[in-house]
Amino acid sequence: MSEENDLKESVENATEKTGNEQSVLKKLDPTLYLVALLTVLVLSISYFFVFAMPKMKQDQLGIEKAKYDQEKKPQESYVKCVDAAEEEYESYIKLNGAPVANQPGAFSAPEYIWQTADENRNAAIDVCSRQFRH
């Protein structure tokens, strides 16, 4: 029987403790909850400004750089293509024309040579435009 009494006392003590713990929780000051809430809020905002936002800006900068490089590549290719057309024009004139005396870099050629060189250059530039400017 004493064991039963000890068991009953332990159950009663356990319920008293939980009752005491509940009363302690009821007696806690509401400002403690407010302080905890504000702490969580401040830590969340700090995390955003210290870690998340710089990472977001870095990712955005990487995307913009990739987009710029992608736009720049066809433009550079177009310029190279036009330069090649100009070089071809000049070499055609040099091959089919004669240098002008006392004027370095100047050439004279019949009119049909100039017209053919212009037509070839314009055709090459048109090809460049269609290929790189869509």
Sum this structure up briefly:
The chain has 134 residues and is mainly alpha-helical.
Structural class: mainly alpha
What spatial order of strands do you see in the largest sheet?
A: 1-2
Q: How much strand?
A: under 5%
**What is the overall silhouette?**
rod-shaped
Please give the alpha-carbon distance between the first and last residues. 99 Å
Name the helix and strand elements from N-terminus to C-terminus, one letter apiece. Answer: HHEEH
Cα-atom radius of gyration = 43 Å
The helix fraction, in percent, is: over 70%
Per DSSP E runs of 2 or more residues, the count of β-strands stands at 2
- Tally of structural domains: 1
* Mean pLDDT across every amino acid position: 82
Unreliable segments of 5+ consecutive residues: none
Q: Helical stretch count?
A: 3
Largest sheet: 2 strands, antiparallel
